[in-house]
Write a structure and sequence with these properties.
Layout: H1 2-15, E1 20-25, E2 41-50, E3 62-65, E4 73-76, H2 84-89, E5 98-103, E6 124-134, H3 143-147, E7 154-155, H4 157-166, H5 176-180, E8 188-189
Antiparallel strand pairs: 1-5, 2-3, 2-4, 2-6, 5-6, 7-8
């Protein structure tokens, strides 16, 4: 019995050694313009579970889902912002496709795992849906506009410090003001500001 259990365990571990992508709904073939490409910004829905053949973790256990939050997961494909199994497995899928990605541990979270729900060595299964893709990402946030509370198109030290206090800091980061206030007039203008500020001063 012990030998049989050992063989079953080793068989399960060996069952998920490579990335598999199975489209079960939506288009399997499409024009190149509708295929996901490296570098594009994509919007996805997904549900992640421990794969049924995983040697670690509880097979079938769900650990995350964008569907439950009612909001897509948006990221740049191929930029290393998601696990390797996503970066490689999603490339070439068509917009509107629904697929299951079976991801071996070395293309997921490896020996370290992730949090309490994904142990080290777990193979993963993601039920994904390609919602949309674009060459351009979402518009750049306008942090300058948010910091400029008195709407005079320039930032004071007090306005910038108020932002950092919201982050739990009591002082400005060392050297930040000196770096940003390039003309040393005691204010940071939109032109001087080095953070996200939109595309035009007209947006203020």
């Amino acid at each position: 019995m012990l030998l049989a259990c050992s063989l079953l365990a080793s068989g399960a571990a060996a069952a998920v050694t490579e990335l598999k992508v199975e489209v079960y709904d939506g288009p399997k073939e499409c024009e190149d313009a509708d295929k996901l490409k490296k570098g594009e910004h994509v919007s996805m829905h997904y549900t992640g579970t421990i794969d049924k053949d995983s040697a670690a973790g509880t097979p079938g256990k769900q650990f995350d889902s964008s569907r439950g939050r009612g909001k897509t997961f948006d990221f740049q494909l191929g930029a290393g912002r998601v696990i390797q199994g996503w970066d490689k497995g999603l490339e070439g899928l068509c917009v509107g496709a629904k697929a299951v990605l079976t991801i071996p541990p070395d293309m997921g979270y490896g020996a370290r795992g992730a949090g309490g729900d994904i142990p080290g060595g777990a193979a993963l299964s993601f039920d994904v849906e390609v919602v949309s893709h674009s060459d351009e990402g979402p518009p750049e946030p306008n942090l300058f506009k948010d910091l400029d509370t008195d709407k005079d198109a320039k930032l004071t030290q007090e306005e910038v410090l108020a932002f950092f206090k919201q982050q739990g800091k009591e002082e400005l980061p060392e050297g930040l003001w000196e770096k940003e206030d390039k003309d040393k007039d005691g204010f940071i203008s939109w032109e001087e500001f080095g953070g996200p500020k939109g595309k035009s001063k007209d947006e203020l």
